[in-house]
Amino acid sequence: MLAASSLSNFEPTLSADASGSLTVTSTAFSNGSTISIQYTGDGENINPPIKIEGISQGTQSLVLIVDDPILPFLTWNHWVMWNIPVDGVIDEDSAPGVVGRNGWSRNTYGGPDPPFGTHTYHFKAYAIDIVLNFHSNVGKTEILEAINGHVLAKGELCGTYP
To answer: What is the DSSP letter of 22?
Structure first.
């Protein structure tokens, strides 16, 4: 089932107190490189380890969104998670925050599994000055709208597959 809220290309605005950018890394792949098969729909379909650094003072929680801008008008959401602790550590096959609905209307990480060609997957992190009070039945669009104007810093890690 297609979750319409997962297709948005909306990007939230920064807070008036925004102070910089985040560094998003993974020990599983480097920026611009191929994501290992175990983190894809062709493998174990578990999330890779992620580390978010450069978290500014005043950050109350973190948001992570993993998506694939398939076409200029269509972005497929693979994972949305909020209220991630400010230590910025997401271990392999773990979800330290609240996981919302992805493009398949499931509350889980959905690894890369492109129907054609090589796709680029964006692991976008946001440091926000609030803690979100949402049930896990919401998706990417609702979270991005809620953090609009509350983003203190953001960063991104990109990987490709296959």
So the answer is: -
The pair of structure tokens assigned to 12 is: 């939230």
CATH code, 104: 3.90.280.10
Beta carbons of 150 and 127 less than 8 angstroms apart: no
Q: Which of 56, 75, 70 is nearest to 18 (CA)?
A: 56
User: Of all residues in the chain, what percent are helix, strand and coil, respectively (each to 5)?
Assistant: 10, 40, 55
Q: Over its length of 162 residues, how does the chain's per-residue pLDDT go in tens digits?
A: 344 444 556 788 888 778 789 999 999 999 999 999 999 999 999 999 999 999 999 999 999 999 999 877 789 999 999 999 999 999 999 999 999 999 999 999 999 999 899 999 999 999 999 999 999 999 999 999 999 999 999 999 999 999
Domains of the chain: total: 1
pTM: 0.93
Residue 124's SS3 state is strand
Can you give the residue range of the structural domain that contains 64? 4-161
Closest to 50 measured CA to CA, from 158, 161, 160, 162: 158
